[in-house]
Amino acid sequence: MSGRGGKATLIAVAVVLAWLVIGGVAGPYAGRLSEVATNDNAAFLPTDAEATRAQDLAGEFVDRQTIPALVVYERPSGITDADRQRVRADASRFAQIPGVVTPLPPPIPSDDGQALQVVVPVDDAEGEEIGTVVEQLREITGGDRDGLAVDVSGPAGLLADLIEVFSAIDGPLLLVTLVVVLVILLIVYRSPVLWIFPLLAAGMSYALASVFVYLLADADVVKLNGQAQGILTVLVFGAGTDYALLLIARYREELHRHDRPWDAMKTAWKGAAPAIIASGGTVIVSLLCLLLSSLNSNRALGPVAAIGIAATLLVMLTFLPALLVLGGRWAFWPRRPRADQADPRAEHGIWSRIAGFVARHARPIWLTTAVVLALLTLGLTQLGATTLGQSDLFTQRTDSVDGQEVISRHYPAGTGSPATIFTTEQTARQVARVAKNVPGVADVRPLTAGQQSGPPDPSAAPKVVDGRVQLEATLTDSPDSDSAERTIRELRVAVHHVPGADAVVGGFTAINVDTSDAAKRDQNVIIPVVLVVIAVILALLLRALLAPLLLIATVLLSFAATLGLCALLFRHVFDFPGVDSAFPLFAFVFLVALGIDYNIFLMSRVREESVKRGTRAGVLAGLAVTGGVITSAGIVLAATFSALAVLPLVVLVELGTAVAIGVLIDTIIVRSLLVPALAYDIGPKIWWPGRLSRANGEREARGAG
């Protein structure tokens, strides 16, 4: 016996040492992910989108592709000669910044005389360094002075602010996530020792995922953006802690039945691993369904997050068990489990009482909870998915937002970020005339020879490239507004109808339009695929058809209720203007994939117990022994996704809030009451058409339960 125990210890030590070496190599990459991240929204468009075609054509009209920074100066009492001198001095310094494309166009005065605007074209090849260029622009202007307000806005200013937000991921977000997990683990385990094991394993999972994501992104195999990077952090720590809680709970049970930790871990691993693998597999496959997306941003998130879950599964099923074997019973101090053959349900008094309550009132419980969730879905009428405007992207004020508001007060709001129209030379005049008649278009001018940016020279001839002319349409509304998007749609309809024009409309607003359209298409394609995939996995795991269908129905109801509740919170509590067009799909993938996890944890144990006790008794036993750990897991996951709120970006705050609320609804209502009550009420038929559905002696089993 001692020989077997010594061999087991050596194996555990070897596994731990091997993982520590891997962690030492992979660890530094966790802090380097920002080096390979990109946040260029235009690059995420489908290749066949009209805005993408326009972007390709635009590259033929200029020596270098640029993204404009708009430096706007405002004095409500009127721009003075000293102000004009200051603007000219600033502009000469702007031209000396590396990455700025010269010559700069002259400052553009507003009609009311209260503002001046300098268009600073920044070389698009600068990539993430655009943020550095914008920072230098802001340093040169020096901010507000002597009553003259100065802001740096435009597409380059917005991108710089986004880059600054995402730079917080490597530090503050990771720190907040770690603290949240630590606090919850201390509360759950009430042990000064045990929390170390899941937290160390989660950290190892994140390091392993980071090295693979870094290498793949560096090789341009996957696209990593700040949004995917933030979700990777909370997903790995949240899901990893969930898997750890499940394994540790099962290990604690088996320590009551086995003298040696090694034997207890072998039995616990065999019991918990199938559910953990099925859970992780469901999330991985669901995330990989995002590869069907037409948007590169969605396709980027899928494999990045799937790599995170795969790394987490590997670590939690190898490194964590080895740590727990080495820790033995003392890891649970001061509540160390003894080999006393105690019934696992004895340690879960409150959940045994909940199980009894479910048994006595099964039908009223599932009917009531279903009605409550259905009522929450009524809030969906308040959801209104849209493309968030620039002023709506952030939860706090930014320089780019302030600048856009100044531009909107004194200029046609689309100044500096016009829509671009490419058409044949022969039809250019007709297309320009048709475009100018579209409501919401303030002016249409051709790009002239020698012009790189800024207002065109009316006396110069249009620039012709391969028989095409580029027209610039200035919009009356802010380029990121809903009204500007409507204008682009109407503009496209109008110019497409010009015979022989072969017109293509692009620009900043057109990118938003095409992104929104692609997001709607993705929802219609990906959501059904995810549901089919989950149904197949559940059918294989539970060896039944009815149970998987009912579980998916409950998760869909939970998802709709979550979105309904979130819609009310976003509109009436957080005062958000709406949700981004990509939000419903992201929320669906995470809520359904993660929500089904808890049903997998519950129903896999219910099936195991049903084989021994009968279905109804198995439902009660499964609920009693898994209730505490699944609730703890749900709270951990909800709390980790809530950590996204530290990033001042509306879309991530909304996603974190939705996942947190959805997970809590799944954990507390769906998994604790609705699913067990429904399964108990249906009885053995829940396993139809499997053998368990034809089990005999259900009445005796019910009495025994």
Automatic annotation (TrEMBL):
Q: Which residues form a coiled coil?
A: none
One family from Pfam that matches here is MMPL
- Write out the annotated subcellular location: Cell membrane
Q: Where is the SSD domain?
A: 231-326, 552-680
Membrane spanning residue stretches = 171-189, 196-217, 229-251, 272-293, 305-326, 365-385, 525-542, 549-570, 582-602, 614-639, 645-665
Membrane topology category: Multi-pass membrane protein
What's the family? Belongs to the resistance-nodulation-cell division (RND) (TC 2.A.6) family. MmpL subfamily.
Q: Which PANTHER family match?
A: MEMBRANE PROTEIN MJ1562-RELATED, MEMBRANE PROTEIN YDGH-RELATED
Instruction: State the name under which the record lists this protein.
Output: RND superfamily putative drug exporter
Q: What is the lineage of its organism?
A: Bacteria, Bacillati, Actinomycetota, Actinomycetes, Micromonosporales
